[in-house]
Design brief:
This protein has 235 residues and is an alpha/beta fold. The chain has ten helices and eight strands. The protein has a single domain, classed as Alpha-Beta Barrel (TIM Barrel). An eight-stranded parallel sheet has the order 3-2-1-8-7-6-5-4. It starts with 16 loop residues before the first strand and ends in a 5-residue tail after the last helix. Bound molecules: SN-glycerol-3-phosphate. The site of SN-glycerol-3-phosphate (G3P) has 14 residues, from strand 8 and helix 9.
Length: 235
């Protein structure tokens, strides 16, 4: 299937770091407020050495067309193709609408191992950027060994809080990064990330980026919040 994207990003084979902003279903980033929310965010190529992707809710994915310089990911995807499936989101449909990636198995939207495995294989066939979320080291290992190219480690108890994964779980990040590397996957980490130090510590521990929600979406200026995650000068 032909891969069409609005924004031209370096592929996952590069050494770019990755920042994924998950807009979740927050009132200020969803539905009627989504246009003004996304309008004020940095473009996906705004920072050298970084790719920024915006994981939007299903209703807001059409905004990819309106903001061609911003890379949109879905927050969830299903492994089925087109057909008689109610409420599903297929990779085929996303790719054809210019959305080339998605989270799957987020702690707030868990799916079973069978679905994850199917999705990993399909994503590889379609060259789709599937970000498989893992709650612990065992899951990181399982998904990396199943062929996931991008694994996101997020300890659920830290999500939405003020203690970041890099402060609370440095040893796990280090081990997870090693497991991913061994299996040809890249690791990003999330939960409680709010500052440049949270991100830079994660990178030092072997991750290639972060998955962030409240630290950006709920900030008084989400654009500055993103910039200050990447730029030391702003901290
Ligand atoms: O998907 C990102 C997420 O679950 C982390 O949330 O609010 O801790 O950045 P937050």
């Amino acid at each position: 299937m032909q891969r069409y994207t609005y924004v031209k990003l370096a592929s996952n084979n590069t050494n770019d770091n990755i920042l994924i902003i998950n807009t979740k279903h927050y009132e200020k980033s969803t539905g009627v407020r989504a246009v003004s929310f996304f309008a004020n965010l940095p473009e996906s190529n705004a920072f050298k050495g970084w790719q920024i992707h915006y994981a939007a809710g299903p209703y807001d994915l059409h905004l990819a067309k309106q903001f061609p310089e911003k890379s949109f990911y879905a927050q969830h995807v299903d492994p089925n193709g087109y057909g008689a499936y109610t409420g599903k989101i297929s990779m085929e449909m996303l790719i054809e609408t210019g959305i080339h990636g998605s989270l799957i198995n987020h702690s707030e939207f868990r799916v079973g191992f069978e679905v994850i495995d199917k999705s990993i294989h399909k994503a590889r066939d379609l060259n789709f950027d599937l970000v498989v979320c893992a709650e612990n080291l065992e899951e990181v290992s399982r998904f990396a060994q199943s062929g996931a190219r991008l694994v996101a480690y997020e300890p659920p108890e830290l999500i939405g809080g003020n203690i970041s994964v890099s402060t609370a779980k440095p040893g796990i990040i280090e081990k997870a990064a090693g497991i991913c590397e061994k299996n040809g996957a890249r690791l990003i980490v999330g939960a409680g990330i709010k500052t440049y130090v949270d991100i830079s510590t994660s990178l030092k521990l072997g991750a290639c980026g972060g998955l962030v929600a409240s630290g950006v979406v709920l900030a008084s200026n989400p654009s500055i919040a993103i910039t200050s995650l990447i730029n030391k000068e702003l901290t």
